[in-house]
Each structure stands twice: as structure tokens, then as C-alpha cells.
Amino acid sequence: MNRLLALENEVLRRSKKATARAAAQSLRRVVRPFQTATAVWPDASVQSMKTFLVNNATGGNPQNCIDTINEALKILFAPKRIPTGSAVHLTMDALATAGLATSRTDFEFLDAKGKTTTGVVRPDHLGVVLLDELVTLANNAVGWSVFGFSLMDGYHSVLLSLDNSTSTPRVYWSDQWPTKGGFKEYDKAGLNAEVTRLTQGWWDGQPANKKHRTRCTVWRTLP
Hints:
Mean pLDDT: 87
Largest sheet: 6 strands, antiparallel
Oligomer: single chain
Strand content: 15-25%
Shape: globular
Order of helices and strands: HHHHEEEEHEEEEHE
Strand order of the largest sheet: 1-9-5-6-7-8
Helix content: 40-55%
């Protein structure tokens, strides 16, 4: 009887150990590269990218959003050659696979009742302060960090450039729209408000049975 009990206890012990090992492996799989990525972009690289972005947005014949982002990233990474895709998530996931960006981080909207909505219920506000999240994703690195940014699950492609060289981090929005001028600065409240305004406007205009998922996604590029 004692031998049987001892055998049962040994089986239970091994089972718990295997479960703990599996849980640890699962946790490791979700650890993102940004947790140890502290390198920042040289100011000259960001300024070269900015020059293209401003000229593209204000020159009267801008490229579409993903082509704008792809070209800007090529300039940022120059002379290194980088993979790109036909949508922001394809470009950024390709960069992540190549070790040139972190994996994606998604942020969901909340509805008017404060519950998470994926697009079924009208988005009311983001559940995070996006600028604070960018600083965290940059691991508080001092200098320039550049992020690929997807609105409404890929409906629009943007680059967000974070300048964390002063006590007050600054973020700049880049796409092809002339109203943004290629490199428009936002503060914390302004960035959240603009992402919310755009997402709500697009969501409101879509048929009830064809609503996009309302999450936004960021990837940090790695110098």
C-alpha cells in the first residue's frame, strides 16, 4: 500500500513539474524583443526620413500610405536593404522576422461602458495612453525610436517617431496626408484623440455587417 502511494505521489510530482515547465515555455514565447532593445536611431537617419516624408505629403502628388511608409523605412535603414510588403503588418512582420523590428503589440478600444470592443460595438476610447506605451516599448531609451503603426487593423498605415531625448517625450505622426505635413507633432492627449477620431469616423461609415476590427498595432524598428 505504501509503495502504491509513493508511486502515485511520484507521478503527481512529475506531472506538476511538467506543467510548470510548459507554463515557463509559454511565457518565454510571449517575451518581446523590445524588452532588451535600447538602441536608438541616429538623428541624421531620422532627418533624412523626415525630409522625404515632408516632401511627399506637401508636394502635391503623395504616394499612398503603405508606399509612403515603405519608402520612408528604406531611407531610415539605408544603406541596409530591407524587406517590405503590401500592407503595414506585412512590412513590419517581415522586418521583425529579419530581426529589424519587434513583434507586434496590439491595443484595443473600449466602448462607452468601458468594456473592450473589437469592432462590434462602437469604439469610444483607447484603453491606454499611447504615447506612454511607446516610451515603454522603447524601453525608455534616450533618443529617436521609430514605430510602424496600424490603425483599425490595417485600414491605415502610419509611422510614429518618438523623440525621448528630453524630459518631455515628443511623438511625430507621418503618413501621406497633406494635413499632417509629413511629420506632425502630438502630445499625449492629442495622439489618443486623433487615433480615436479617425477610428470612430471610419467605423461609423462602414456597413453594420462589415465593421473592421478597431484595434491599433505598433512595432518598434530596431537600428
